[in-house]
Amino acid sequence: ETPVKITEHQRKLLKELDDSFRKGGERHSPTSKSWADRVKDLFK
Predict the structure, then answer these.
(1) Where are the alpha helices (DSSP H) in 1-44?
(2) How far is CA 42 from each of CA 22, 26, 34, 38, rounded to the nearest angstrom?
(3) How far is 9 from 11, CA to CA, in rounded Å?
(4) What is the largest CA-CA distance in the chain?
(5) pTM > 0.90
(6) Rounded CA gap, 33 and 27, in Å?
(7) Within 13 Å of residue 14, how many CA atoms lie on the same side as its CB?
(8) Integer Cα distance of 12 and 20 in angstroms
(9) Which of 10, 9, 29 shows the shortest CA–CA distance to 21?
């Protein structure tokens, strides 16, 4: 669940965290991969 009542400082920290995840190249969302991608990962 995404927090909605946050301070400006907290918003900045969340933005920095999001930016750091994006720089990693891979998405960090549990549902970001398709079903087919997860099946392919099983065979790696």
Answers:
(1) 8-23, 35-42
(2) 24, 17, 13, 7
(3) 5
(4) 44
(5) no
(6) 8
(7) 10
(8) 12
(9) 29
Segment 1-44, tens digit of pLDDT: 777 888 999 989 988 988 887 787 666 566 666 767 777 777 87
One-letter amino acid at 20 equals S
* Pair 16, 9: CB distance under 8 Å: no
Amino acid in position 16: E
Asked if 6 contacts 14 with a C-beta cutoff of 8 angstroms, the reply is yes
Residues 6+ apart with CB under 8 A from 28: 21
